Automatic annotation (TrEMBL):
Its EC number is 1.14.-.-. It is an enzyme of class 1 (oxidoreductase). GO terms for molecular function: monooxygenase activity; oxidoreductase activity, acting on paired donors, with incorporation or reduction of molecular oxygen. FMN binds at residues 55, 101, 151, 155, 226. The keyword Cytoplasm does not apply. This is NtaA/DmoA family FMN-dependent monooxygenase. Belongs to the NtaA/SnaA/DszA monooxygenase family. The lineage of its organism: Bacteria, Bacillati, Actinomycetota, Actinomycetes, Micrococcales. The keyword Oxidoreductase applies. Residues 24-392 form the Luciferase-like domain.
Length: 445
């Protein structure tokens, strides 16, 4: 059995009401860089392998075609470009890695490859690239699109995007730079290559005008859970980001990924899944249960829940009738080229295609999803470790967990590093030390 890898998702430590919860920062506000360097130092001290930053570039406006609810309640905004923050955190740490997100739907591979090469240098080989296919209308509008790109086309573009990035990262061979003072030769021209890519979506000449980075390529992360998304993961991902909290769905995802990896000519044991998992820890079970119930004070307004769900699916749930089947909603989502995985698919997994919901029931379930209530594991360190160990073993002991806490920062991170990690180490599930100096060595070993 390989050891369990642990990442900490700090994409939304300041949104959906968490900025005001007990245990959150006082006297510092997002995006104070000192907040992030403090987190990075604490996470490294606790042995966390990676800090992860998701991203979105638009203020949610899918719900009722308006930004008002998202702005009013702080739903998935504000969001900074985290690349300069990662550069700062890297200077305060030596081992922990950093996951940065960019959209292959809207970004250009040449710019992205060059930026990530530079960040891999700045972090000394501790960078991961989370490649996403964007299904959010607010993001699309900021890049000149008046609608969403076809679902499968987004993944076709992603695969070409990654192929171009990898070709650019390989366009200057690792030993191309000579710096020979005796001859004055800086580099060997035979080891610097044009890419000359001419594809359906991109034309890129290359080479990358950069020095090869410590990892060569950043660690590639992908989170697609639809059949087409899983196929994309199998084609290039080093590690997959999956939805945790529902073991049957996790087992199904692992099996589907394994089959796709074999189809792509890759070994399933080489690609782990980090399951997104929310935890609430207490020194007693009663304390943890009480803290979980505090989540009832978050996102109580239907507009706030609707803004969250609609933005993340790309479909306006304000148009739902008073009663409907989940199959009907799924069909509308597909027709709108919106995201086919996520909240509705999770409901279908639990209730079936023919499950009937009223509008009120839908938003009650949506609140649980948006806050993370339904997938939150609450308990003592021993109880939470029991749950994680069960999931880890049931999904092939391959990967680990992307831990996010629905309540507050920095106190939630300290609870994970001070209570949960020592218990996992006691069981031999996580390593006592970092395996190497690069993220690839630590996360994929």
């Amino acid at each position: 059995m390989t050891t369990m890898k642990l990442a900490f998702d700090i994409s939304f430590t300041h949104t959906e009401g968490k900025w005001a919860t007990p245990g959150s920062w006082v006297g510092a506000d997002y995006p104070d860089v000192g907040m992030f360097t403090e987190l990075a130092v604490a996470a490294e001290r606790g042995g966390i392998d990676m800090l992860f930053f998701g991203d979105g570039t638009g203020i949610p406006d899918t719900w009722e075609q308006s930004m008002d609810a998202a702005i009013r309640y702080g739903i998935q905004w504000p969001r900074q470009d985290m690349s300069p923050f990662i550069a700062a955190m890297a200077q305060a740490t030596t081992h922990i890695g950093f996951g940065l997100t960019y959209s292959s739907t809207y970004m250009h591979p040449f710019y992205t490859a060059r930026l990530l090469n530079s960040l891999d240098h700045v972090t000394k080989g501790r960078l991961a690239f989370n490649v996403v296919a964007s299904g959010r209308l607010a993001d699309a509008a900021n890049y000149g699109f008046d609608g969403l790109m076809d679902h499968d086309q987004r993944y076709e573009r992603m695969e070409e995007f990654v192929s171009v990035c990898k070709a650019l990262w390989d366009s200057v061979e690792p030993d191309a730079i000579l710096r020979d003072r005796s001859t004055g030769q800086f580099a060997d021209p035979s080891k610097v290559h044009r890419v000359d890519h001419h594809g359906e979506h991109f034309d890129v000449a290359g080479p990358l005008p950069s020095v090869p980075s410590p990892q060569g390529h950043p660690v590639l992360v992908q989170a697609g859970a639809s059949p087409r998304g899983i196929a994309a993961s199998a084609s290039f991902a080093d590690v997959v980001f999956g939805l945790g909290g529902h073991l049957p769905s996790q087992v199904k995802h692992r099996a589907a990924l394994d089959a796709a990896l074999v189809e792509a000519g890759r070994r399933p044991e080489d690609v782990g899944i980090l399951w997104a998992t929310q935890v609430v820890l207490g020194r007693t079970a009663a304390e943890a249960a009480a803290r979980k119930e505090e989540m009832a004070t978050m996102l109580m307004d239907e507009d706030a829940v609707g803004a969250y769900l609609s933005y993340n699916s790309g479909f306006d749930f304000s148009v739902l009738p008073e009663k409907f089947t989940l199959a009907e909603v799924a069909a509308q989502i597909t027709a709108a080229q919106a995201t086919q995985s996520g909240f509705v698919q999770r409901l279908i997994a639990r209730r079936g295609d023919d499950g009937v919901l009223t509008r009120t029931e839908f938003f009650e379930e949506g609140w649980k999803y948006a806050t993370g209530y339904e997938q939150t594991i609450a308990g003592t360190a021993e109880q939470v470790a029991d749950e994680l160990e069960e999931q880890f073993l049931a999904t092939g002991s391959n990967g680990g967990f992307m831990i996010c806490n629905p309540q507050s920062m920095p106190s939630s991170l300290y609870e994970v590093t001070d209570l949960l990690v020592p218990e996992l180490r006691r069981r031999g599930l996580v390593s006592d030390t970092y395996a190497g100096t690069t993220l690839r060595e630590n996360l994929l070993a």
